[in-house]
Amino acid sequence: MTAKQPSVKKYIVKLSGDERERLNALIQKGKAPARQLLKARILLKTDASAAGDAWSDSHIASALDTSIDTISRTRQQLVEEGLDAALIRKHSPNSARKRIFDGAAEAKLIALACSPPPKGRKRWTLTLLETAVVELNIVDRASDNTIGRTLKKTHSSRISRSNGSSPRRPTPPS
Fold it and tell me: Do the beta carbons of residue 48 and residue 13 sit within 8 Å?
């Protein structure tokens, strides 16, 4: 068997003085998201310039309790796309779910929730609203949970809770 040879790093990080200062300031403030702070620490440890530490990936992985893949991806992003791309997480427009209620549909839902309830009912429930928004072609489909979140977000309190209590009435002290 042959011994495993260490691979040559394809992406070598050499930070400028300004970049090092920016990363150090980011870490010292400690107000950034944890992922961003981790990537800043990785970049400072992988820095192969005269002022850098130039640690090995395995040494960084054990010191920062992260994976070698994360270190190599961070290094690659810095070299290919720059410091901001390496620090800030990209959000894919395809990964997020599309909103069920856009502005117009949300307004129609609120108007419906504020309107008189169906005959035989004292007030709207989430289940009744769920059925009504589909019947009135406001949206194709919606769960009572989605309707509740939408109304909560818009501070609409015209519906009853699932336990039958009104959201405006405080619960009696025990």
Answer: yes
Residue 146 clears pLDDT 60, i.e. is over it: yes
C-alpha of 94 from chain center: 14
**SS3 readout for the chain:** CCCCCCCCCCCCCCCCHHHHHHHHHHHHHCCCCHHHHHHHHHHHHHCCCCCCCCCCHHHHHHHHCCCHHHHHHHHHHHHHHCHHHHHCCCCCCCCCCCCCCCHHHHHHHHHHHHCCCCCCCCCCCHHHHHHHHHHCCCCCCCCHHHHHHHHHHCCCCCCCCCCCCCCCCCCCCC
User: Which residue do the tokens 């992922």 mark?
Assistant: 35
Least confident of 93-97, 136-140, 147-151: 93-97
Question: Is the distance from CB of 89 to CB of 54 less than 8 angstroms?
Answer: no
User: pTM of the entire structure?
Assistant: 0.54
The count of other CB atoms within 10 Å of the CB of residue 60 is: 21
CB 109 within 8 A of CB 79: no
Interatomic CA distance for residues 26 and 70, integer angstroms: 19
Residue in 53, 60, 70 with CA at minimum distance from that of residue 15: 53
